[in-house]
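=== RUN LOG ===
request id: a7f3
mode: sequence -> structure
chains: 1
length: 165
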Amino acid sequence: MKRLLANISVAVAAMFILCGCPVAMDYTPVELAIFVNDSNGNDLLDPDNPDNFAQGLKFEYNGTVYNVDDQLEELRTKTYMPTFHGLKLIKNTYHYTKNKGRYFLYFGEFSGENTFDGTFRITWRDNSSDVITCHNKKYNKKGNCTLNGKSYKTTHPSFIIELVK
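=== RESULT ===
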């Protein structure tokens, strides 16, 4: 019986593909994660740090300024669709293993199946600023970015930036 069901499943999938019917596929969404520390390794996004850089920052993308923790409505479907969450300050408990326990600025999600080009300008509370430009044209592959005009290596399909202030 299991074999019959498996054969039927394969036949139905082949029919959809051959007839040109749309097939839902999930791709890893594109995200931006920014960790900020000082030269001594102190987490400058930790809310308990008196030098917290998240307070009063100005984050700009495509002409729109985002504040930390803007609340946006979610889109729900049967297949996984990227949900744009805006800008969040998150404590890293599991996602990026190298920086466990640290805080980071999270911006996204963007659709992973499309070419992504994004330029982000962050003006910090001390009026210093950083410009991050990211590009990803391969599905579920790591992209490339620049930080203040210099090439910045990323090792994840999403863009993980580590700044020293």
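=== NOTES ===
Residues 2-19 form the longest helix (18 residues).
Residues 71-75 have pLDDT under 50 and may be disordered.
=== END ===
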